[in-house]
Design goal:
single chain; 377 residues; mainly beta; nine-stranded mixed β-sheet; seven-stranded mixed β-sheet; 25% strand; elongated
């Protein structure tokens, strides 16, 4: 039979697992020395919790254990703890500092996501991987030290950490997943430590380049893309509001999804003849972009590729384009005219929805799929 203390906190019958604290709990709480495990959702939504003392007997903190404890301002995790579960401190917006002991070897996915008040954190040397979304939305985070033990950074691990200005990638790191630094619009410098065999900073050009595949997977405001790069990967520059212009070298053949999404300061871009595909959402939200030339090499324009590019007034589609994706130019309110080339055989639904300024659509003579009926638009 479960044990319940005078505060209404529920424990397992052996009192080793703290199972549930009432959501209406107010103030400070000290966990008894008998507890070895803080269970899943133990303090879930306890917004009135202001302070917690964790004893040295605790070895694990379960999934969502302190989820949305927004009244919690600081916490000390004892050296006995070896694992922190998924979403363990997610949405603890009042948390300003946290100390993770060297005993911790595992930090779960989204463990500290949306802790907007968190300004700094040190990851202990025992941690080998930073999971998906661990620090997503930690907008107050200005610096972070990644130890040499870390070999992988998960998808969106630092997504929307807008206060982060610089980061150093250690020699040990061999895997960075999609959108790891997406939305880090304050990030001006990404340095790869000398000796890293997987990623290369190319003379500190403020980019992360996977040398084995020659892919640019993370860039920031002052990035110079080397001539050797063959692809700009998913989310590489997403949310880099300070980026105003960029030149893509002739070596690049593909632009991934969300590659330049929400780069609102981007006014011009040159796409080389080597590029054959533009991924979905690639330039969505680039409201400052006024014109773009798509080269003859491009055969497809992905879904939402130019969604919300309200500053775009004209665009020329080359004869090579055969496919325009779903909502590709939706809400391009500044667009006044467009010409459909002979090559185009598929325009997905809502490709030009919301283009309130569009007064002329010309279909080139000879197009077998679409017909302007003697250019009657």
């Amino acid at each position: 039979m479960a044990y319940i203390d005078k505060y209404g906190v529920k424990f397992s019958d052996d009192r080793k697992t703290l199972e549930k604290c009432p959501e209406d709990f107010q103030g400070k709480y000290t966990i008894p020395d008998s507890v070895t495990n803080i269970g899943e959702r133990a303090f879930f939504f306890c917004r009135g919790l202001t302070s917690i003392t964790i004893p040295n007997s605790v070895t694990s903190i379960g999934d969502e254990a302190f989820y949305d404890c927004c009244g919690l301002t600081s916490i000390t995790i004892p050296n006995s703890v070896t694992s922190i579960g998924d979403d363990a401190f997610s949405d603890c917006s009042g948390l300003t500092s946290i100390t993770i002991p060297d005993s911790v070897t595992s930090i779960g996915n989204y463990a500290f996501s949306d802790c907007s008040g968190l300004t700094s954190i040190t990851i202990p040397d025992g941690v080998t991987s930073i999971g998906a979304g661990v620090f997503k939305g930690c907008s107050g985070l200005t610096s972070i030290t990644i130890p040499d033990s870390v070999t992988s950074i998960g998808s969106g691990a630092f997504r929307n950490c807008s206060g982060l200005t610089s980061i150093t990638i250690p020699n040990s790191l061999i895997s960075i997943e999609d959108c790891a630094f997406s939305g880090c619009n304050g990030l001006t410098s990404i340095i790869v430590s000398k000796g890293n065999k997987k990623y290369d900073s190319r003379n500190n050009c403020n980019a992360i380049i996977e040398t084995a595949k020659n892919q640019l997977i993370a860039g920031c405001k002052t990035t110079i893309i080397p001539d050797s790069v063959t692809s700009i990967e998913d989310g590489a520059f997403s949310g880099c509001h300070g980026l105003t212009s960029i030149t893509i070298p002739d070596s690049v053949t593909s632009i991934g999804w969300n590659a330049f999404s929400d780069c609102s300061g981007l006014t011009s871009i040159t796409i080389p003849d080597s590029v054959t595909s533009i991924g979905w959402n690639a330039f969505s939200g680039c409201s400052g972009l006024t014109s773009i030339t798509i080269p003859n090499s491009v055969t497809s324009i992905g879904d939402d590729a130019f969604c919300g590019c309200s500053g775009l007034t004209s665009i020329i589609l080359p004869d090579s384009v055969t496919y325009i994706g779903y909502r590709a130019f939706i809400d391009c309110s500044g667009l006044t005219s467009i010409t459909i080339p002979n090559s185009l055989i598929c325009i997905e639904a809502h490709a030009f929805s919301g283009c309130s300024g569009l007064t002329s659509i010309i279909v080139s003579k000879g197009n077998k799929k679409y017909d302007s009926r003697n250019n009657s638009n």
